[in-house]
Amino acid sequence: MTDANRSGKRFNIVLSILIAVLLWFYVVNVENPIGQTTISAVPVEISGASELSDKGLMVTDLNRDTVNIKAVGKRKTFLKLYHMDMTLFVDVSAIDAPGEYRLLGRVSPESSRAEVTLSERDSFAITVTVKKKVSREIPVIGEFHGTLASGFDVQPMQLNPGTMEVSGPEELMERVSHVVVVLSGEGVKESLTEDASFVVLDKSGTVIQDPNLICSAKTVQVTMPVVRLYEIPLTVSLKDGGGASSADAVVSISPATVKLTGSEEQLRQLNEINLGEIDLAEVFTNKSKAFVIPIPEGASNHEQEAEAIVNVTVNVPMKSISATQIQFVNIPKGFQPSVTDSLQVWVRGPQSQLDQVGNEHIKVVVDLAGAARKKGQQRAQAQVFLTGPEGVGVVGTDYSIALNLK
Fold first, then answer.
1. Domain membership flag for residue 15
2. Contact residues for 226 (Cβ-Cβ < 8 A; gap 6+)
3. Cβ–Cβ contacts within 10 Å for residue 311, how many?
């Protein structure tokens, strides 16, 4: 085939295509006969919802979400319809009470022009269900589902908002309990902050999934502070006395440690926290005492335990001696004191030394400077002194004696 023949063939092909296009353009734009088409799946939307909400009502259901619309008109115009985002709007603003209503929708954008007519307008009828709307503020609760790195813990989550307005049909709102937002992670050792999604739960903890529940927020801003913990032992000082030393005492402290957060430099150097002192002379066999846990400045008590209970047990032989050497000092002028009851004094120490102690080793001094200036019986504080074998001591510091002034 010659080059001239090839060029002629190409020309004929192009010419044929051009003629076909011109014929199509002529038929559609000049002849353009009347035709009919169906526009499928046109979405249905509600208008006037805000006016309905102002009346304490809301739409909870539509009998259908889309409609099919038949159109009659020139074929050329159908092409324009297919490129429109058509919507069927149903106006509920005039509804004043709960119930079911059959309403005619309005197509937008308007297409009932000279070229096209939307037929079978009964297809625009939509049945809407309207119910009483209830709104309530409910709490937002944060949860962490995951693990922390060793030696770290979490502090209470900071939630914004902390409460949320939830609206819905009355019978559905009776089930609503709270909103839960969840953060997750593995081996977490830094604080987490994010805008998190949430779920609405009923009273049994079941998620409520219902399109008629309306929440005032789309997400919840959650901050979960993650802090390093320093577990510091608690200790107590023991003062030797009453024939007992710290070697004779068994001490237990509850809690045994306190968990602190704060400056790493400060807490890393803290080996213990001393609660205070217990005088063993005040411990007969067992004594419990509450101490306020002193927290270093700049640190925080993670578990918020304000007190520790110290229990001290002493297992050293004791015996009771009736005191006979009683001396009164600062006797009120014009009065004469006398003892009305014996005073039992407890002494403690190693058994061999304890066996050597008798009432001749016990001296009691009673100061009457604060005694009532009147005749009759009363009690006065007494100081007990022991002059006996080494290693034996008086147990108890709060002795008193019954006396008579005349």
1. no
2. 148, 152, 153, 154, 155, 188, 189, 190, 191, 192
3. 13
